[in-house]
Inverse folding.
């Protein structure tokens, strides 16, 4: 019996970033797009994601606040959050430590490998090869 791919949610308003992440992650997971934390939390009642990706470029000035909302909600409280950026992350003007953020376009192989590694650590995730 074939196991279902793990669910990864991306929160952000930029459809280009969503398309780019979908292209990079390919067959690694099912990708679900949400424009805000409320939508994510509502849908997570039915199926909590294995990982939440937060697009810091399209979340306004408070990505940490959105992360706190997600972590405070029951269905997503234990879900790992990864901040993503389209460009190379060189500054932490938004208050996010550089090692908490992954660049999707400048290092796509590293981005994919990190997500794959995190999915392996999630209980119930399928074995990835």
């Amino acid at each position: 019996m074939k196991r279902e791919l793990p669910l990864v949610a991306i929160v952000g308003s930029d459809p280009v970033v969503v398309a780019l992440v979908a292209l990079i992650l390919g067959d690694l997971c099912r990708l679900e797009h949400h424009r805000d934390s409320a939508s994510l939390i509502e849908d997570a009642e039915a199926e909590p994601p294995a990982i939440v990706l937060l697009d810091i470029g399209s979340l306004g000035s408070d990505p940490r606040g959105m992360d706190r909302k997600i972590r405070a909600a029951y269905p997503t409280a234990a879900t790992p959050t990864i901040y993503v950026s389209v460009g190379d992350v060189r500054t932490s003007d938004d208050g996010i430590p550089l090692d908490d953020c992954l660049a999707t376009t400048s290092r796509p192989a590293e981005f994919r490998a990190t997500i794959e590694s995190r999915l392996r650590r999630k209980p119930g995730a399928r074995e990835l090869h």
